[in-house]
Amino acid sequence: MEDRNARGETIHQEMRRKAAQPNPFNRPAPRIPCGTHRYEVIHGKAPRGWGLWMFCIAGASYGYTGSFTEARREAAKFARLHNVPTIEVMP
Fold first, then answer.
1. Could you report the per-residue pLDDT of 6-33, keeping only the tens digit for each?
2. Which residues are 61's β-sheet partners?
3. What pLDDT score does 81 carry?
4. Total of domains in the chain
5. pTM for the complete prediction?
6. Structure confidence at residue 42 as a pLDDT band (50, 70, 90)
7. Residue 33: which domain range?
8. Which element (helix H / strand E) includes 72?
9. Cβ contact 49:31 at 8 Å
10. Is residue 52 one of the residues assigned to a domain?
11. d(CA 60, CA 64)
């Protein structure tokens, strides 16, 4: 038997309801800066294009296959989820 809150919802139902609610402060999610210095020093240019992109997030590696823009967006979501303030593109 699943636990239910005061509204009679399961934990999953409550999470879905809260996720569907608008942001009470009407602010976008905080921007996570993405460092590219090491990549630029090694490759001599800014990161861009399609491929396997690796990011250093709190000392751990996070990989994503796709465009750099998509990869940076997904890495930022991952960093936000784990309360990490910055990410770095790995060379």
1. 888 887 888 788 777 776 666 777 789 9
2. 56
3. 86
4. 1
5. 0.66
6. very high
7. 29-89
8. helix 68-81
9. no
10. yes
11. 14
